Amino acid sequence: MKKILMVLILLLLISNTASFAQCAMCRATVESTMSNGRNLAATGLNTGILYLLSAPYLIVAGVAFLWYRNSKKEVKRRENMNLVQRRLNQVLGRI
Predict the structure, then answer these.
(1) What is the pLDDT of residue 37?
(2) CA dihedral in degrees (76, 82, 83, 86; nearest 10)?
(3) In the predicted model, what is the mean pLDDT of residues 52-72?
(4) CA–CA separation, 79 and 69 (whole Å)
(5) Which of 13, 48, 93, 95 has its CA 20 to 30 A from that of 22?
(6) Residue 46: how many CB atoms within 10 A of its CB?
(7) Which tens digits make up the pLDDT trace of 3-59?
(8) Which candidate, 26, 28, 31, 32, places its Cα nearest to that of 45?
(9) Does 2 or 17 have the greater pLDDT score?
């Protein structure tokens, strides 16, 4: 398993290709507006990219919060069950 992972990482490093963060249409629009001295389209595009970038992080944060909250409830439920069992054992031990 470890060897397969190392081979995959090595292949990814070797096959490094030039990639751009924008599609061809977006890049052409930004370049044309920047050459005209207007910066509005580039600002809008950057805002859209940041908006799309934040969505997965918010979803992961929400799932992590729900997981944490449910685990706290489960711990509290187990503590209550242990307390009930101890008291029941005390009562049954006296009989």
Answers:
(1) 67
(2) 180
(3) 93
(4) 16
(5) 13
(6) 12
(7) 888 888 887 777 766 555 557 777 777 777 776 666 777 777 778 888 888 999 999
(8) 26
(9) 2
Which tokens is 65 given? Answer: 């919060």
Tokens 């060897």 belong to 3
Q: Are 78 and 70 in contact (CB under 8 A)?
A: no
Q: How far apart (Å, rounded) are the C-alpha atoms in residues 61 and 54?
A: 11
Q: How buried is residue 33: exposed, middle or buried, by Cβ count under 10 Å (0-12/13-18/19+)? A: middle
CB 76 within 8 A of CB 65: no
Q: Check if the beta carbon of residue 22 is closer than 8 Å to that of residue 30.
A: yes
Backbone angles phi, psi at 38, to 5 degrees: -95, 140
